[in-house]
Design goal:
- The complex is a heterodimer of chains A (about 160) and B (about 400).
- Chain A contains 5 helices and 9 strands, in the order βββββααβααβββα.
- Chain A has about 160 residues and is α+β, with helices and mostly antiparallel strands.
- Chain A has 2 domains: about 5-70; about 85-155, 2-Layer Sandwich (Alpha-Beta Plaits).
- Chain A is elongated.
- Chain B has about 400 residues and is mainly alpha-helical.
- Chain B contains 20 helices and 2 strands.
- Chain B has helices spanning about 1-25, 30-40, 60-80, 85-90, 90-115, 120-130, 135-145, 150-180, 185-205, 210-215, 220-240, 245-255, 260-270, 270-285, 290-295, 295-320, 325-335, 340-355, 355-380, 385-400; strands spanning about 45-50, 50.
- In chain B, strands 1-2 form a two-stranded antiparallel sheet.
- In chain B, helix 17 crosses helix 20.
- Chain B starts with a helix and ends with a helix.
- Classes of the chains: A alpha+beta (about 160), B mainly alpha (about 400).
Amino acid sequence: MTIYETEVPGVGHKFELEIDGDERLVVIIHHDGKRDVYRRPDPDADSEQLFSLTGKQARQLGSILEGAYFQPVELDEVEVPLGESIIEWTEVGADAPVVGQSIADCDIRSRTGVSVMAIQRGEETIPNPGPDATIETGDVLVTLGSREEHSALSDLVED
Amino acid sequence: MAASLVEIGIALAAVALAGLAANRVGLSVIPAYIVAGILVGPEWPTEVLGVSLQLVAYGEFIAVAAELGIVFLLFFLGLEFSVGQLLADRKRITKAGSVDFLLNFGAGVALGVLFGRTPLETLLIAGVVYISSSAVVTKSIIDRGWVANPEAEPILGTLVFEDIVIAVYLALVAALLTGSGDLAGAAMDVARAFAFLGAIAAVAWYGTDYVERAFDLPNDELFLLHVLGATTLVAGAALATGVSEAVAAFFVGTAFSQTPHTDRIEDVVAPVRDLFAAVFFFAIGLTTDVTVLAGVAALLAVAVVLTTGTKLVSGTIGGRVYDLSPTRSLRTGIGLVPRAEFSLVIATLAAGAGGTLADVVPAFTVGYVLAMSVLGTVMIQHADRLTDSLAPLVADVTGE
């Protein structure tokens, strides 16, 4: 969102916010604290004044808009189906029993409950490793699971 | 003492009632203050139904308060002068501003020549008809909602350009009027004025940090007194050296404009400006002899018609410089029609000069400002009818 700011001599400051396509909100902040809010539907139309607020009212409205009074659950986050699960990064120790085994051989899923989403090895990352991908010393396993499941994994792969 | 207090009381009450009446009918308060001064002042009308209307004389107190009105009008002009905005948009502001200057100042010069005025009178008339009123224009475009539209840019940009021109112009004219008469002497006066003002401008430009610290005061009362003291002292010193006090105050204002104190000044000092400016307009009315207006009636009538037209055309061209539609460009022109406070500041210079200059120019300016501030405001209020009928013409001319 682009915001344009200009000075209006003798009055105060003017802010224009691009909202939807060509539509703009125009806010005039007067030196005495008064705020006038206008809406301009498209570049050829005239701005219509929506409302006018005192400085105090404007700050209250501002904090409501900002979410300080009530924080809504953002829909984008709800759609991530993690539920109780978290993502963790766990480094494989040199003496871990799983070193040299494939993911299928060491049966991480049934022993700990976590799913291996990726393996970070040095600079490279192996996304969605298959069952025959092997685990080596120094690998970082990126896994999805609950806190208990992750502590089981730590017990298995860390020194 | 009692008599003076009553006199000042009558003056302030007259200004208050005039302002109220102007607000009721949606007009600028400036012409109302002038009319209030004419009514209760020593010149015609002197009585109504046997009751004397010579209630307030143009005494020393009012004269000094009016002078402070000029100083603080220009101080705020400097304070609100945005160098940043000017630099960021210099190409378009320079184009629109130059057209505005050429057409309107040019129209003033043509008027002076046409009516056989002296070169000095012509120079003053040109200044009077050139400069738009920041106060009336800004208030009108807020009332009308144009301030939130794209046409606000060329309107405010042109006003910024006019601010610079008027600072230079006032410095020049003040030096010429107080000057020694012959050409070499006049050149010396102008040079001295610009040296003095250049020094203030340099302090304003380089002394921002110092100003910021010096005026970082704990309460509003001290802050107000410091700002008033500093501004009035610099303006007074300027006047004492024969330099325009108005331009000195303008530069004091610019010294503050780069500091964080601007909001506090708008808050604390603006009411003082409003008071003294009201007295300034009222004092103009007090000193105006309406019967003298008859002597300049022809000049006045032609000037009103001609310079309404030139502002309309120059503003419309200014709007086109900003790539605005014909309707918005026309609004730019209509928005800039009102002339008021700065024209009167120029007239005050002439009034102080004495001679025939003091008769013609002030009377002309009062009549002109009364007409243009009212006409301009009414034109802005009824702009839709004007733009509807003129927009096709503008579209034709500009080939859109």
